[in-house]
């Protein structure tokens, strides 16, 4: 599911269309929290297929929109090389429910190995330094889900493991975890 945010005008409240277990929605929720933007949470039940409704299909994904429209707390660094690194690491979920656990684990670990090598020269407290940017809110849910749902041992990836621990300390991250969303089923 690609989460969406809509806004009728610059003065209207943002609306996050989300499903509590969606890592895409988690990323957007984390980004909204980092930007300090108030929003209305509207649940989209993926199990019932609500994401296929005509209303939902009119909405667009939004992380780049948020970065351009709301300038506080940039989601991309201003340095062009670092910005390219973030865009290059635009992580999308490719694993569907029909795929086997071993296949998913193999491919996630392969991706994490590549990210380890890519980030080793850039990572500080977070993926590309001491500030949270777009790569971080794409990585955080991916790492969490890899641990929780796919039993990936993140100690194999020391850089990613270290920055994930930093994410978990952020109030904005804590507020974005699936279990804290209004439609969470625990």
Q: What does the model show?
A:
The protein is mainly α. The chain is built from 8 helices and 3 strands, in the order ββαβααααααα. It has helices at residues 23-35, 54-57, 63-69, 80-88, 101-119, 134-150, 158-169, 171-176; strands at 4-6, 14-18, 39-43. The protein has a 3-stranded mixed β-sheet with strand order 1-2-3, covered by helices on one side. Helix 1 packs antiparallel against helix 6 (134-150). The longest helix has 19 residues, at 101-119. The radius of gyration is 16 Å and the shape is globular. The two termini are 20 Å apart.
Tally of contiguous helical segments? 8
Main beta sheet strand tally, sense and closure: 3 strands, mixed
DSSP summary, beta strand count: 3
Uncertain stretches: 90-96
Mean pLDDT: 81
Q: Structural class given helices, strands, pairing?
A: mainly alpha
Task: Give the fraction of residues assigned to helices.
Answer: 40-55%
Q: Could you tell me the radius of gyration in angstroms?
A: 16 Å
Q: What characteristic shape results from the CA principal axes? A: globular
In spatial order, strands of the major sheet run 1-2-3
Q: Order of helices and strands, N to C?
A: EEHEHHHHHHH
β-strand amount: 5-15%
The CA-CA distance between the termini, in Å, is 20 Å
């Amino acid at each position: 599911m690609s989460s969406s945010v809509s806004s009728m005008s610059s003065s209207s409240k943002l609306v996050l269309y989300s499903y509590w277990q969606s890592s895409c929605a988690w990323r957007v929720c984390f980004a909204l929290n980092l930007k300090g933007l108030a929003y209305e949470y509207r649940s989209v039940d993926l199990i019932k297929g609500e994401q296929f409704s005509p209303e939902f299909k009119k909405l667009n994904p939004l992380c780049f929109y948020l970065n351009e429209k709301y300038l506080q707390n940039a989601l991309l660094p201003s340095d062009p090389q670092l910005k390219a690194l973030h865009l290059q690491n635009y992580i999308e979920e490719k694993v569907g429910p029909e795929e086997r656990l071993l296949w998913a684990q193999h491919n996630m670990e392969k991706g994490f190995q590549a990210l380890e090598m890519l980030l080793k020269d850039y990572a500080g407290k977070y993926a590309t330094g001491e500030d949270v940017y777009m790569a971080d809110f794409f990585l955080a849910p991916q790492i969490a889900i890899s641990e929780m749902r796919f039993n990936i041992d993140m100690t194999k990836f020391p850089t990613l493991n270290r920055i994930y621990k930093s994410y978990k300390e952020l109030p904005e991250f804590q507020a974005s975890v699936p279990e804290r969303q209004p439609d969470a089923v625990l």
